[in-house]
């Protein structure tokens, strides 16, 4: 480990060598040129892209993540719809980490950006020349009173596709419901995959339609009634796709309860806060699909790296930290003002990696992220609307440009991409750093 440490110190090209002067022998093995926080989609993609640059030796790059399993979370909607099993979507995290990395299978207790170090959950200090912060965000089940208890109760028809533990319960609840009121919620505020709360609604609706329990032409006369209760003012944040989805909602007889933010569950009653902050509405339900509020992990939110909202405060274009030039962030934990999706990560990581590698050579960042994100929005079994857009909610359609097709029209080809191609390319290429999303394969 000593050679690694001295190499790291020698190679410091950014004027940040001061931290290494104080590194004690005991912690010498815990100095790395680059430390990547997070073994999720962003962390794995970035760390492997950095390694593929050929500029790093054994243990030059460290990855920190306390998890045992890595999950392909975009697949959990399909588990909720009974299309995939949750087991097929996960891999042991250590099997996805190149042996050339030092892997700290531990949590992060804190950041010391002035000292160029982090502290692990076990108390050890790890120092770096460059830090990449990509730990994702947390799903806050406690944000809805009564939710943890309702989810844990196997008899309740309350579930969520947002966790490994409960995404299969969702399909069980859909199958168990034969009559009554089904409510699907979406919270106010940022969440991972803002389309997923309604994707599961569309799958459930289609399931009940096929089972003869729901007739979109006569919702009031159907055994099941369906509501979408969302804390947001619209079905989807990008105007072009919102128009299609709002039309589908009306055509399919789904009640839209906008700016209804779920706050508590009590038996078969769900209570929603309304925008003025005073009034609330309580609805009875027979099936409830819940999307809890989400937000930055406490160790990020409470750190010197966070902006006011608790996200890692990086430049919207370069992904470089606004205050600490040797800190970078991408993915859900970053302040990048776009959707929190794996597709967005495919466009963020090449920018981050190019700018970080350039900065090691003293260059000014010259790559810029345009806010690209995508949402393959499943509208029924066998059909997907492929929303793709950039900053400002402006559509940026891959296949529209190639073939002149309108991606707001739900298609079978996009469904096959979502069901078969994306999960495959994710584990074969994206986590290894060789997938560029709409740009295809990159090295
Ligand atoms: C993508 O690259 C990707 O990652 C593997 C997804 O899976 C989560 C996606 O949903 C999307 C939309 C992309 C973007 C790629 C193309 C070709 C549109």
UniProtKB/TrEMBL annotation:
<dbReference type="InterPro" id="IPR023753">
    <property type="entry name" value="FAD/NAD-binding_dom"/>
</dbReference>
<dbReference type="GO" id="GO:0005739">
    <property type="term" value="C:mitochondrion"/>
</dbReference>
<dbReference type="Pfam" id="PF07992">
    <property type="entry name" value="Pyr_redox_2"/>
</dbReference>
<dbReference type="GO" id="GO:0070221">
    <property type="term" value="P:sulfide oxidation, using sulfide:quinone oxidoreductase"/>
</dbReference>
<dbReference type="GO" id="GO:0071949">
    <property type="term" value="F:FAD binding"/>
</dbReference>
<dbReference type="InterPro" id="IPR036188">
    <property type="entry name" value="FAD/NAD-bd_sf"/>
</dbReference>
<dbReference type="InterPro" id="IPR015904">
    <property type="entry name" value="Sulphide_quinone_reductase"/>
</dbReference>
<feature type="domain" description="FAD/NAD(P)-binding">
    <location>
        <begin position="33"/>
        <end position="151"/>
    </location>
</feature>
<dbReference type="GO" id="GO:0070224">
    <property type="term" value="F:sulfide:quinone oxidoreductase activity"/>
</dbReference>
<protein>
    <recommendedName>
        <fullName>FAD/NAD(P)-binding domain-containing protein</fullName>
    </recommendedName>
</protein>
């Amino acid at each position: 480990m000593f050679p690694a440490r001295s190499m790291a110190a020698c190679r410091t090209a950014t004027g940040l060598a001061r931290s290494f002067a104080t590194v004690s022998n005991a912690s010498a093995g815990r100095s790395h040129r680059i430390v990547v926080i997070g073994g999720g989609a962003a962390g794995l993609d970035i760390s492997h892209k950095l390694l593929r640059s050929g500029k790093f030796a054994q243990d030059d790059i460290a990855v920190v993540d306390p998890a045992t399993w890595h999950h392909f979370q975009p697949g959990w909607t399909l588990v909720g719809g009974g299309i995939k099993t949750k087991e097929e979507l996960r891999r042991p995290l250590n099997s996805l980490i190149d042996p050339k990395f030092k892997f700290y299978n531990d949590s992060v207790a804190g950041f010391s950006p002035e000292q160029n170090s982090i502290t692990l959950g076990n108390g050890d200090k790890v120092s770096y020349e460059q830090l990449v912060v990509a730990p994702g965000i947390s799903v806050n089940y406690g944000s809805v009173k009564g939710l943890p208890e309702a989810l844990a109760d196997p008899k309740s028809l309350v579930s969520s596709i947002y966790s490994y533990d409960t995404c299969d319960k969702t399909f069980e609840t859909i199958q168990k419901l034969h009559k009554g009121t089904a409510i699907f919620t979406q919270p106010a505020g940022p969440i991972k995959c803002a389309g997923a709360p309604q994707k599961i609604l569309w799958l459930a609706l289609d399931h009940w339609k096929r089972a003869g329990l729901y007739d979109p032409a006569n919702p009031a006369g159907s055994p099941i009634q369906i509501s979408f209760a969302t804390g947001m003012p619209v079905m989807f944040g990008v105007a072009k796709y919102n128009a299609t989805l709002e039309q589908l909602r009306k055509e399919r007889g789904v009640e839209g309860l906008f700016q209804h933010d779920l706050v508590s569950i009590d038996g078969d009653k769900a209570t929603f806060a309304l925008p003025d902050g005073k009034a609330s509405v309580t609805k009875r339900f027979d099936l409830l699909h819940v999307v809890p509020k989400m937000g930055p992990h406490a160790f990020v939110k409470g750190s010197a790296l966070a902006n006011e909202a608790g996200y890692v405060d990086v430049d919207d274009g370069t992904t470089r930290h606004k205050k600490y030039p040797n800190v970078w962030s991408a993915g859900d934990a970053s302040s990048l003002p776009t959707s929190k999706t794996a597709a967005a990560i495919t466009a963020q990581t090449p920018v981050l990696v190019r700018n970080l590698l350039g900065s090691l050579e003293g260059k000014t960042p010259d790559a810029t992220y345009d806010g690209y994100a995508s949402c393959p929005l499943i509208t029924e079994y066998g059909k997907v609307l492929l929303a793709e857009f950039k900053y400002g909610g402006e559509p940026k359609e891959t296949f529209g440009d190639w073939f002149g097709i309108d991606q707001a029209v739900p298609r079978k080809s996009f469904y096959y991409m979502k069901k078969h191609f994306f999960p495959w390319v994710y584990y074969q290429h994206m986590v290894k750093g060789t997938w560029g999303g709409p740009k295809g394969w990159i090295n």
